[in-house]
Amino acid sequence: MSHFLFDEFPLVSAAAWKQKIQVELKGADYNENLLWRTDEGITVKPFYTKEDCKNIPINLPKKGFNICQNVFIDDEKTANFLTKDALKRGATAIHFKANKPFDFQKVFANINIKSILIYFQFSFLEDTFQVELSNFCNSENVFFQTDIIGNLAENGNWFFNMNEDHKRLKNISNSCKNTISISLDLYQNAGATISQQLGYSLAHANEYLLDFGKEIANNIHFSFAVGGNYFFEIAKLRAFRILWETLLNEYGIENSNVHIFTQPSLRNKTIYDYNVNILRTTSECMSAILGGSNTISNVSYDAIFHKSNEFGERISRNQLLILQQESYLQEAQNVADGSYYIDAITSQLAEKGLTIFKQIEKGGGFLDQLKSGVIQKKIKESAQKEETDFTNKKNVLVGTNLQQNKNDRMKNELEIYPFTKHRNIKTLLTPITRKRLSETVEKERIDNE
């Protein structure tokens, strides 16, 4: 029966489709009216066929994604309560953040560490503490988001100095598993294009392979941020898996189990008409799921202007639970397979990311180009282009640069400072700064309230 159905329709070539479209345009220019040229240098066509599909194999996770909850460790008992509450309400992973060493026995009291995934993100580098913590956890499900190069890129300084940072990280890597996380979220939140994010992340990771040897590859994992360009963000995650496997093959390493931790971007989040942030993060979480993320940690709709609160955290967690349990996306990593459009974008992004990586390596490597300011300059140019598009309403954030609610008042709602903070400290290099697109507009509106 299926053969009969398909045999009734003759095969139609891409050329025939294009010719039919041109007839329907009645003289209008096909290229000008139907082709979309992106900041990545990719031309998006109005239709795709099997001819556009390269069928590059992608090693995606073997099981569904984990729902992660953020917990900041200030008071250990509070952190313990929040962790147990999040796990009881559906989280399967916890993302701990801390600014100083803590009593980990209190934090994990009455918690089965081996039954969940745990991520640690520290704003300090203490190898002795980290090794003790790793030994206490004694689980392969623990990931340390330590990134000395990422810290240098964002803060302009090493934790201590280059030699000391490398020495401490080596001590950690010799004693712990899953010790290095490449902070790709920095580049996305600073305004880098998707191609740049891919190229920079590959060059960033390659610095560790060169410094510590190819054996460190099994300890490297990646932290992504996804933006609002739905299909391109799906393709970004898939393209990165291709690129990472390609790089490892050059080192003679067979390791296709790259671990990806993903959060929605803050770059397109707003303080005015803030409920729209829920729509944005839902779309971005779907991109993260369909792109093949191992773990997804959602961002609360009010995270940029409110302190962490039970309601905001519950809403963000429930967004993921709805996608996982009610939208049946638990095992959705392979859903994008067979999509001509996504496959075409994936291969093009991978090619452009690889080109950027090769340019960086030819120019002396990621660290050298970071110290000379080349990376910062490229990201700044891309960010300025994106901000210009926002100003001209080519890049729309509803409720902020389009369809503003003049009755919105936010000045008295700000529990935390929502804008970029400028530090007057001496740095070794120009820091890469995270900045939201809407900051200038929002400052003006607050001043005029």
Keyword list:
single chain, 449 residues, alpha/beta, TIM Barrel, eight-stranded parallel β-sheet, 17 helices, 10 strands
Structure characterization notes:
This protein is α/β, with parallel strands linked by helices and 449 residues long. The chain has a domain at 66-343: TIM Barrel (Alpha-Beta Barrel). The protein is built from 17 helices and 10 strands. Strand 9, helix 12 and strand 10 (295-297) form a beta-alpha-beta unit. Helix 10 packs across helix 14 and helix 11 (230-250) crosses helix 14. The model has no long low-confidence stretch (mean pLDDT 94).
What's this, in brief?
The chain is α/β, with parallel strands linked by helices and 449 residues long.
CATH H-tier superfamily of the domain at 66-343 = Methylmalonyl-CoA mutase
Q: What is the CATH class designation of the domain at 66-343?
A: Alpha Beta
Write down the secondary-structure element order: HHHEEEHEHEHEHHEHHEHEHEHHHHH
- Amino-to-carboxy terminus distance: 67 Å
Q: Any chance you could write out the topology, listing elements then pairs?
A:
Blueprint: H1 2-7, H2 14-24, H3 30-34, E1 36-37, E2 43-44, E3 66-72, H4 76-88, E4 93-98, H5 104-107, E5 117-122, H6 127-137, E6 142-144, H7 148-155, H8 162-175, E7 180-183, H9 184-190, H10 194-212, E8 220-226, H11 230-250, E9 260-264, H12 276-291, E10 295-297, H13 310-326, H14 340-362, H15 366-371, H16 374-391, H17 439-447
Parallel strand pairs: 3-4, 3-10, 4-5, 5-6, 7-8, 8-9, 9-10
Antiparallel strand pairs: 1-2
Helix pairs in contact: 6-8, 10-11, 10-14, 11-12, 11-14, 12-13
